[in-house]
């Protein structure tokens, strides 16, 4: 079955994910009731006449008062194997780990995550395309009614691969590019810029939504501004991330941008695109409406990260190499685990660790 919407019940109502564009809306209880019982969607949600909804209903004790009832996005590293050896790689990818999850483990994991209420699975790595089962895994996740995306270096994406990804239901691809051709190739290796740009065009032509992502460093801060302008012309959004000094990036201390350069960078970005930083501010009035009573809620608390050997981290790739909460090979109850995180205030501790 092809689903149009994924709705997860929450203490305040529900989180609705539109599977066509990946946008989330936070619904009040009344809005949820109208959708479920009367198929009546709020005015700002575009619907057609044949909505197919994947609905995750929760028992009262599973609805978390001040937080989302499960992670929205689950990142899964499909392998640590990588065809590149980038200088800044924060999870030291290159070789396969000797205790990586098997195909069956990942199938079980996807099923369990979806049952628990995950709304998006974002496959990463290493290079996710180096896992020979990637197409089956995307097809599985897609058939379960969730949004599927990949983070890739793009160098293995030909026209045929892009079409195959589209066929199995991939909704979005994040392609990494770290500045101009010269700067990117210094960090990522020869010809990687050209190949990534080709991948973006193949993916776009196949109908997959594409976004680029860059890691901001001292040596590429000017190039990233130019890359942003260049990609905007082709209607491609560029997400800019800070350098995380872990694993191979520990050798790049001089590349970490200082506070005043960062402020200057933001000012320049703001000049090119005044909306760039505001898109991260979660200004959705609907969100403010439903959460005004939820003291302590932080919208960012919505990600889980599973490394190639099954370790579970809160947040995204930046949390790898902090202390994992556990390993999915030993985990039976993900919803219980998610609730436990909040009860024990794990999140706060991890955030402090990441920041420290
Ligand atoms: C580890 S890679 C795996 C996916 C794929 N191989 C790629 O490069 O896109 C995931 C993302 O982390 C980013 N990344 C790598 N090293 C980083 C670092 N030191 N700090 C911040 N992001 C980093 C990459 O640029 C990429 O966008
Ligand atoms: S950043 Fe991505 S492409 Fe580069 S080595 Fe790491 S996993 Fe591979």
Unique bound compounds: S-adenosylmethionine, iron/sulfur cluster
Note the overall shape: globular
For this structure, the CATH topology of the largest domain is TIM Barrel
- Assign the CATH architecture of the largest domain: Alpha-Beta Barrel
Question: Residue share in helices?
Answer: 25-40%
Query: Order of strands across the biggest sheet?
Result: 10-9-8-7-6-5-11-12-13
The beta-strand count equals 13
**How confident is the prediction overall: mean pLDDT?**
87
- Going by CATH, what is the homologous superfamily of the largest domain? Aldolase class I
How many structural units, i.e. domains?
Answer: 2
Spans of at least 5 consecutive residues whose pLDDT stays below 50 are: 293-300
Summed up, what is this model?
The protein is an alpha/beta fold and 356 residues long. The protein is built from 11 helices and 13 strands.
């Amino acid at each position: 079955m092809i689903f149009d919407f994924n709705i997860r019940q929450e203490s305040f109502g529900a989180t609705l994910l539109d599977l066509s564009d990946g946008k989330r809306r936070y619904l009040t209880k009344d809005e949820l009731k109208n959708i479920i019982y009367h198929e009546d969607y709020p005015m700002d949600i575009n619907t057609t006449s044949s909505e197919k909804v994947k609905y995750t209903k929760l028992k009262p004790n599973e609805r978390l008062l001040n937080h989302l009832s499960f992670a929205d996005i689950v990142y899964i590293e499909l392998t640590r194997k990588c065809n590149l050896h980038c200088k800044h790689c924060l999870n030291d990818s290159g070789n396969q780990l000797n205790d990586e999850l098997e195909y069956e483990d990942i199938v079980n994991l996807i099923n369990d995550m979806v049952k628990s209420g995950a709304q998006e699975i974002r496959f990463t790595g290493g290079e996710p395309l180096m896992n020979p089962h990637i197409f089956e895994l995307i097809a599985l996740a897609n058939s379960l009614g969730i949004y599927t995306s990949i983070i890739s270096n793009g160098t293995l994406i030909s026209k045929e691969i892009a079409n195959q990804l589209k066929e199995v239901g991939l909704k979005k691809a994040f392609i990494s590019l770290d500045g101009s051709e010269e700067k990117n190739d210094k960090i990522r290796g020869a010809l990687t810029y050209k190949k990534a740009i080709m991948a973006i065009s193949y993916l776009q032509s196949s109908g997959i939504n594409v976004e680029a992502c860059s890691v901001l460093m001292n040596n590429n801060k000017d190039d990233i501004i130019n890359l942003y302008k260049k990609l905007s012309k082709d209607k491609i959004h560029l997400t800019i991330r800070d350098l995380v000094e872990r694993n191979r990036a520990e050798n790049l201390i001089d590349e970490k941008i200082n506070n005043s350069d960062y402020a200057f960078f933001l000012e320049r970005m703001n000049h090119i695109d005044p909306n760039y930083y505001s898109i991260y501010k979660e200004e959705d009035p609907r969100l403010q409406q439903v959460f005004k009573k939820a003291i302590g809620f932080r919208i960012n608390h919505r990600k889980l990260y599973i490394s190639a050997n099954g370790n579970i981290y809160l947040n995204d790739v930046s949390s790898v190499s902090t202390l994992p909460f556990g390993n999915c090979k030993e985990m039976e109850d993900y919803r219980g685990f998610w609730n436990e995180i909040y009860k024990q205030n794990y999140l706060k501790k991890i955030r402090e660790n990441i920041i420290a």
